[in-house]
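Standup notes, structure subgroup. Blocker cleared on the adenosine-5'-diphosphate input:
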Amino acid sequence: MFNLILFGPPGSGKGTQSIKIAEKYGLIHISTGDIFRNEIKQKTELGVKFKSLVEKGELVPDELIIDILDSALHKYQNINGFVFDGFPRTLNQSGDLDNLLGKDKESVTLVLALDVDDNEVVTRLLKRAVIEGRKDDTEDVIKNRLQVYKDQTYPLIDLYKKQNKFVGIKGIGSIDQIFDNICGEIDKR
Ligand code: ADP
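Run returned:
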């Protein structure tokens, strides 16, 4: 299987690029943000627990994610692999992912991070707020999400660098240009 992790700060275009990657390479797109927003919308027991955290830009606790992920991964059979979008976001979660994939004798193949500076991200997300009305796209919450990314997700980059799985991608440019750079890295593997 080809298992790709796509990292990047909020607003870096992970969602857009993940969909394109999944389509081109026949991979299953797993977005934890989409999964959580769906739980919130359906007002499930978990959704009710997540709502205020997600709206404040805080992370959902690691222990609540593992079961959701386990069932998301095991819904599929005979697949080429996954694109993980927004997961893992903590060191703990990366361990959980290794264990889950390891149970099926699989592992993370490649980790790409979209590199976009803070000013650009804030501008993009404030624009998206007008169009999509996501509750976590207000200026204060965006700043918090950026800080959470730096504090909790950044350390994962070092981890995957040590495993020789990490490549940074310039996240500024047209969607197609960025996608071409991503495909270039995938095709090397
Ligand atoms: P973005 O990357 O633009 O912040 P996402 O859609 O990936 O947006 O995530 C939205 C919110 O969902 C996060 O701010 C967080 O509250 C929650 N979330 C998503 N993925 C995770 C995760 N792996 N661990 C904890 N919380 C998560």
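Discussed briefly. The chain has one domain: 2-184.
Next: hand off to the docking folks.
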